[in-house]
Amino acid sequence: MESNLSTSFILVGLFGDTPNATLLYTMTFIIFLMALVGNSLLILLIHSEPRLWTPMYSFISQLSLMDLMYISVTVPKMLVGQVTGDHIISSTGCGIQMFFYLTLAGAECFLLLAMAYDRYAAICRPLHYPLLMNHRVCRLMVSGCWFLGTLDGLLLTSITMSFSFCKSRKILSFFCETPALLRLSCSDISLYKMLLYLCCILMLLVPTLVISSSYTLILLQIMVAFKTNTTCVLSASGM
Fold first, then answer.
1. Taking 50 as the threshold, does the pLDDT of residue 127 lie above it?
2. pLDDT digits over 74-86, tens only?
3. pLDDT in tens, 201-232
4. 88: left (phi over 0), alpha (psi -120 to 50) or beta
5. Superfamily assignment of 2-234 in CATH?
6. Residue 9, SS3?
7. Most buried among 61, 185, 190, 194, by the most CB within 10 A?
8. DSSP 8-state code for residue 88
9. Distance CA 182, CA 191 (A)
10. How far is Cα 12 from Cα 101, in angstroms, rounded to an integer?
11. Contact 58, 64 (CB under 8 A)
C-alpha cells in the first residue's frame, strides 16, 4: 500500500477546503451535465440531418466532440474525489489523463485554425469553395488536427512522466497538468520548460495569427461588397 502511495499523486481539487466547496462543486456538476447534454445533442443533430452534412457543420461536430471528451477527462475524477474523499490518482492514471488533455487541447487549437480557413474560403472565394473545401479536404484536415494533437500529447506526456518526482506528491490542481507536475520534479527541467513554453506559444500564436488574418480578410471582403452594392444602388437611383 505504501509503495502505491509513493508512486501516486494527490489532486488538491478545484476549490480546496473553501467553506462553500460543496455548493461550488454542485454548481460545477450541473454545468458539467449541461455541457455534456448540449454537446451530445449537437453532435446527434448534425449527424442525423443530411442537410447539415457540410464541411462547416462537420467542423462544429468535431469541436463539440473534443469539448465533450475534454470535460470528461478531468471533471468526473474531480467530482468523484470530492464525494468519496479519495483524491489519489495513480501514476499511470495521471499519465493517461495528461495525454488525453494535451491531445484534445492541441487538436482543438488546430481545428479552430481549420474552421477559420473554411469560413475564409466560403466568403472570400465562393466560386472556388467546392474545390478548396469539399468533404475529402474536410476529412483530411480533421484527421490532421487529431494526428497533430495526438503527437503533441504523446511527446509531452512521455517526457513529463519520465522525470523523477521526489518532492511533495500533492498536485496543486484538479487534474494532472504538465506545469503542476513539473513543480514536483527534482530533475533538471530547465531546458524542457523552455521548450514547453516555446511549443505552447507556437501552438497558440500560429492559430491566433491565422484566425485573425482570416477574419480580417472576411471583414474587408464584406466592406468591399457593401461599398459596391451601395454604389450600384446610388447609380440606379440616379443620385
1. yes
2. 888 888 888 787 8
3. 887 888 888 888 888 888 888 887 767 666 65
4. beta
5. Rhodopsin 7-helix transmembrane proteins (1.20.1070.10)
6. strand
7. 61
8. E
9. 12
10. 18
11. no
Domain ranges of the chain: 2-234
**Residue 8's closest CA among 161, 124, 127?**
161
Residue 203 DSSP label: H
Q: 61-98 burial string, b = 16+ CB within 10 Å, else e?
A: bbbbbbbbbbbbbbbebbbebbeeeebebebeebbebb
Q: Report whether 152 contacts 203 (CB < 8 A).
A: yes
In this predicted structure, what is the pLDDT of residue 235?
Answer: 61
Q: Which residues contact 166 (CB under 8 A, 6 or more apart)?
A: 185, 186
Residues 6+ apart with CB under 8 A from 43: 61, 64, 65, 68
Residues in the chain: 239
3-state SS of 14-81 is CCCCCCCHHHHHHHHHHHHHHHHHHHHHHHHHHHHCHHHCCHHHHHHHHHHHHHHHHHHHHHHHHHHH
Reply yes or no on whether the pLDDT at 5 is more than 60.
no
User: For residue 66, what pLDDT band results from cuts at 50, 70 and 90?
Assistant: very high
